[in-house]
């Protein structure tokens, strides 16, 4: 079966990580990441392309289309509002299908002043002030991404010097939802999924949960879908005013970083968008019958400048944890198998190691060699240091190997440094 080649551009921010996670394990999709500015993409995309010209470069189209042609890209996901707007304006110059709205829709979604002008006659449009009469008010950049630059103004001296690039809105004190949506190529709204934004960090939802789809939210979604032209996934944000009425904050045609919450319900909006643009018919959506909460924090990924071809790994309290196995270490063992890196198990285990491995359902085939030594022996004496690393929870063993052999040594807490996330 031929795979659908999908390019994420740019591939460095949190929504590009969500697109990667949503698509990289799909058997009929091959995912590529590309960026103009080096950020996080190289840590997660197995197929990663760097040094792409900026979209305002005179050579952008030539170089970008060269990338598309060389990699036989079928679908592109723009991950930044400015890029989405640019792609929508130049769809005829790009040699692949793009998950983006038409030019008019993208321009309206990019500019909040245009958004509010379009929906000014609907009761869900917030009050917009042409001049400041009363406080508090909320100001936001006409063209902004997330909540960057948006802030509450309680008194005149908190205002920026120039308000020309801002929209002045009524202050909305209530709860805030993001509503994920999916529209097919015929303009039919296939799916609506509200989720609450309970805690934010740098404009990104780090805690939230799925919420009930009310008739009011469904009404707003349908009006937006009728007025604009979407292709695939999109989303909008709403917030309640002081009278408990929903008001529109913004609309976007790109993937949201927290669409993972909707995906956790079983609705993979990025994948469904790929299918829509590829012309698949009769798309079925499965919404699992449970409620879900999401909480996250920063995750660290690493790159070291040391190449190893063999890993010597301790067993007790390294491969094992309490009465079971250490899942991170098991991940590492299978990672080594996938990458063709040999693993030698080196242990002073007091029982028959083969019986213990069998009890824990750990295959001996994970190991190139199993080295069983006595309690008074030194593991350093059984290690060939050439392109090797050593993993052991024992500080004494690690310091002995480090001093005698000079190879990198790792405690279990530090095994994250060795994880390869690229798929």
From TrEMBL:
Residues 92-278 form the ATP-grasp domain. The keyword ATP-binding applies. PROSITE patterns: ATP_GRASP. This is ATP-grasp domain-containing protein. The keyword Nucleotide-binding applies. GO terms for molecular function: ATP binding; metal ion binding. Pfam families: ATPgrasp_Ter. It comes from the Bacteria. Keywords: ATP-binding, Nucleotide-binding.
């Amino acid at each position: 079966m031929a795979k659908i080649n999908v390019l994420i551009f740019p591939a460095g921010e949190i929504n590009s990580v969500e697109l990667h996670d949503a698509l990289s394990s799909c058997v009929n999709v091959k995912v590529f990441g590309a960026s103009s500015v080096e950020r996080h993409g190289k840590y997660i995309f197995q197929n990663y392309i760097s040094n792409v010209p900026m979209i305002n470069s005179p050579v952008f189209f030539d170089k970008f289309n060269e990338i598309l042609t060389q990699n036989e890209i079928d679908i592109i996901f723009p991950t930044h509002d400015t890029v989405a707007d640019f792609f929508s304006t130049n769809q005829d110059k790009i040699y692949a299908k793009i998950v983006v709205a038409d030019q008019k829709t993208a321009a309206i979604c990019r500019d909040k002043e245009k958004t509010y002008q379009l929906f000014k006659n609907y009761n869900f449009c917030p009050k917009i002030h042409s001049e400041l009469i009363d406080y508090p008010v909320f100001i936001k950049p006409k063209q902004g991404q997330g909540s960057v630059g948006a802030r509450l103004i309680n008194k005149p001296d908190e205002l920026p010097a120039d308000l020309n690039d801002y929209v002045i809105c009524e202050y909305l004190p209530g709860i805030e939802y993001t509503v994920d949506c999916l529209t097919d190529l015929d303009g039919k709204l296939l799916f609506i999924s509200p989720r609450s934004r309970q805690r934010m960090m740098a404009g990104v939802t780090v805690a939230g949960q799925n919420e009930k789809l009310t008739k009011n939210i469904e009404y707003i979604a349908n009006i937006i879908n009728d007025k604009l032209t979407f292709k695939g996934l999109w989303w909008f944000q709403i917030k309640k005013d002081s009278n408990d009425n929903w008001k529109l904050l913004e609309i976007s045609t790109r993937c949201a970083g927290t669409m993972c919450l909707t995906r956790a319900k079983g609705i993979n909006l990025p994948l469904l968008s790929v299918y829509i643009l590829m012309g698949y018919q009769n798309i079925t959506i499965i919404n699992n019958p449970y409620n879900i909460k999401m909480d996250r924090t920063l995750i660290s990924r690493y790159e070291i400048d040391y190449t190893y071809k063999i890993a010597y790994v301790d067993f007790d309290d390294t491969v094992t944890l309490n009465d079971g196995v250490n899942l991170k270490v098991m991940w590492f063992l299978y990672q080594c198998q996938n990458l063709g890196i040999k693993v030698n198990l080196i242990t002073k285990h007091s029982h028959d190691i083969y019986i213990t491995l069998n009890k824990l359902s750990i295959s001996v085939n994970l190991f190139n060699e199993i080295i069983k030594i006595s309690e008074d022996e030194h593991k350093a004496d059984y290690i060939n240091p050439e392109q090797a690393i050593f993993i052991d929870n024992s500080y004494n063993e690690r310091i002995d190997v480090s001093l005698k052999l000079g190879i990198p040594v790792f405690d279990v807490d530090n095994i994250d440094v060795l994880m390869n996330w690229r798929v």
